[in-house]
Amino acid sequence: MRIAVHRGGGTGPLQNTLEGIKRAVESGADWVEVDVHFSSDGVPFLRHDRWINGRNVFELPSEKLISSGIDPLSNALEAFDVTFYIDLKGGFRETLIPIIDGHDVVIGSFNGLILRDLKERGFRTSLIFSAVLSPRIIDEIAGETGADYVNPGWEHHLPSHYVSLLGEIHTPVISWTENNEEVFRTLFSVADVVMTDRLDLVRKYKRFVERM
Prior knowledge:
Elements: E1 2-5, H1 18-27, E2 31-38, E3 44-46, E4 51-52, E5 55-56, H2 62-67, H3 73-79, E6 83-88, H4 96-100, E7 105-109, H5 112-120, E8 124-128, H6 135-145, E9 149-151, H7 162-166, E10 174-175, H8 181-186, E11 193-196, H9 199-210
Parallel strand pairs: 1-2, 1-11, 2-6, 6-7, 7-8, 8-9, 10-11
Antiparallel strand pairs: 2-3, 4-5
Helix pairs in contact: 5-6
């Protein structure tokens, strides 16, 4: 079982920044989830929201994004020795491949066709679900795409009992995202990767997880 930090450092101004990732790694995170959009010239950047001052990220060149204080994905991959879970917010472009090649990454997407292609190229993948589906259907779809992990997303829809349902999924599960400490710890028994925004929970439970 591993602990992941959401949005490259959790909530607030440091999310999806090199400083935020640094804090997550120093807190003991095994994985760091980052959101990625592509610039108009195809460079992947750390960014959750697609809009910057009323314009789409994909309309702006990389020079403009850098001058706006947004970090390229490549800077993070080169700076930190941690597993990066890359959530493709802006679709997929071929320019991503040489940047992630040779790095410890897992690629997440709602698009099974993208993930199947990346899986065939040798990358680990995670299929993200936005709809509430049964464990059996989730496993079937994951099998069709070859996904290594699934993100069921049930916590947004079934807060009263989604933890028990996770145990019925046979594909390795990434739980997404839990900030309630009681539920966070409960997830250790049913999820392969538990994600949170809270660095204090990472620090508190890192040693506990290592003893499991």
